[in-house]
Structure formats: C-alpha cells, structure tokens
Design brief:
With about 270 residues, the protein is an alpha+beta fold. It folds into 2 domains: about 130 residues, MutM-like, N-terminal (N-terminal domain of MutM-like DNA repair proteins, Alpha-Beta Barrel), CATH 3.20.190.10; about 120 residues, Helicase, Ruva Protein, domain 3, CATH 1.10.8.50. Helices cover about 25% and strands about 20% of the residues. The protein has 7 helices and 10 strands. A hairpin with a 3-residue loop joins strand 6 and strand 7. About 5% of the residues have low confidence. The chain binds zinc ion. The site of zinc ion has 7 residues, from loops.
Length: about 270
C-alpha cells in the first residue's frame, strides 16, 4: 500500500513534470472506484492548467485554474504513471488525464483509489477536514500534539494510525517509530510521559524522512511515477521481522495484533 513517503515521492517527481501543463482531456474507463468518478469531471477540467500539485496526508491535490482542484488517493494498490500517449492501456488502468505530450494514468488492480473534484479550499473537503497535523510539516510534535496523544486511552499504536491525531502515518511507520522511541505499541496514550511523547514525535518524523530520502519504501505494488520498478527499499528494523533478532539487543522480534493490524516490536527495547 502506498504510504505517506511514497505519495510525497510521487508528488515531488510529478510536480515539475506537470505544473503549468494544460489538460487536454480526461478519459475514464472505470468510474467505479472507491467513490464514483463524477461524470461531469471531464467537462470541468478540460482546458484547465495544472498550477500546483500538493499533498495532504496520503491525498494528492491537483490545483487547477479558477480554484478548481482534483483529489486523488492511491488506495491500496493505485499507481500514477506518467507515460506516452502511445502506451497501450492495461486491464487495470482506470482513467487518464491527457496533457500536451504525455498522459497521467491511474493503474489500480484493487480499485480503492479515488478521483474527486472540488472548488475553493480543499482542506474543507469532508475527506480532509478532520485530518490531524502533518508529521512532515515544520513544528510537528509540539505541545498540542503531545497533549492530544496523552489525552487518549487507546494503545499508542492505534493512535498513530488515527488520522485525526496525525495525518497519513501507516502501519509500517507506526511500528518503526515506536521501536525508535522505545515505546511498547500496546501502551495507552495517557500512560506515555510528555518527554517520551516528544521523542515519539521526533521518531515519526525521522522514519518518514528516511523513507523519503530513499524514495519511498517501495512495497510490492509501488512504482516510481516514471515507470521504473522501485529501486530503493528501506531496511525496516522491526516491521516484517517477526522471529528475527532485534538489531539493537538481539531479543526476538514479536508480532502481535492491535486493532486488527499487525504490530512488530522488540519486547526488550520497547516498554
Ligand atoms: Zn531490542
């Protein structure tokens, strides 16, 4: 599943290539995605210039003229692919935006991706309005965040996956950040001291930035938007390493279920 660093990697790679480009047309082959693609979308965006590509959590926002924007989420297996007009359409290609010389195409075997539209402030869209702070934004992890984390009784691992508390942190990064911070994933938010909560905030930024520098974590379904198979893979310290020795202490890494999600941790380093 594309996680925040992958989405940011896509944004950084795509923006210089598409900014300023005019949309010649939109072709939708499969409108039944996570939400139906609005039927009037092609009419609204055709002829408009892409002015900016921004990101909120794992959503990409294509800003157009006249305050129009497109909201794209990659879902479980979506891949945005900037390609030549001539490239044949594959069975899981659901839509494409035609620019002057290239097309931006969505490939998504599981169809949990979305393509929606809006006008005005995208932050007010129902899917974005309740999102918590961006972990990569300057100042993340300050007193307000520490207080919000410590006000909750749920296991901290579940809290990190709650988009209202922090935007866009997925399962891998939650496990890795808790390992770096030395915090047991089962610990209640309200039983984490303020200092440890601040350390956790820093650890979250650290693991996301490391993944970003490596170009996204490159899981099975992910490709760089230029079409190259992902060539860089972050070496996780605990995620996916059940039964292996902890890289810090040698204790066996365990996997448990918290809130229906796998959590990997070292019982000796995390408490
Ligand atoms: Zn350990």
């Amino acid at each position: 599943m594309p996680e925040l660093p992958e989405v940011e990697t896509i944004r950084r790679a795509l923006e210089p290539a598409i900014r300023g480009c005019r949309i010649r047309s939109l072709e939708v082959w499969q409108p039944r995605l996570r939400y139906p693609v609005p039927p009037e979308l092609a009419r609204i965006i055709t002829g408009q210039r892409i002015t900016e590509l921004s990101r909120r959590a794992k959503y990409l926002i294509f800003h157009l003229e006249e305050q129009n924007w497109l909201l794209v989420h990659l879902g479980m297996s979506g891949r945005l692919h900037l390609t030549d007009m001539a490239e044949a359409r594959g069975p899981h290609d659901h839509w494409e935006i035609r620019l002057s010389h290239r097309v931006l195409r969505m490939h998504d075997p599981r169809r949990f991706s979305l393509l929606l539209k809006g006008q005005g402030n995208p932050g007010l869209h129902p899917l974005l309005a309740s999102l918590g702070p961006e972990p990569l934004a300057p100042g993340f992890g300050g007193p307000a965040w520490v207080q919000a984390l410590r006000a909750r009784k749920a296991p901290v691992k579940s809290l990190l996956l709650d988009g209202r508390l922090i935007a866009g942190v997925g399962n891998i990064y939650a496990s890795e950040a808790l390992f770096r911070a030395g915090i047991d994933p089962r610990r209640s938010g309200n039983r984490i001291g303020a200092t440890r909560a601040r350390i956790l905030g820093t650890a979250i930024r650290l693991v996301l930035k490391e993944a970003l520098e490596a170009g996204g974590s490159t899981l099975r379904d992910y490709r760089h938007p230029n079409g190259d198979p992902g060539s860089f893979r972050v070496r996780w310290r605990v995620y996916g390493r059940e039964g292996e020795p902890c890289p810090d202490c040698g204790e066996t890494i365990r996997r448990i279920r918290i809130g229906q999600r796998s959590s990997f941790f070292c019982p000796s380093c995390q408490h």
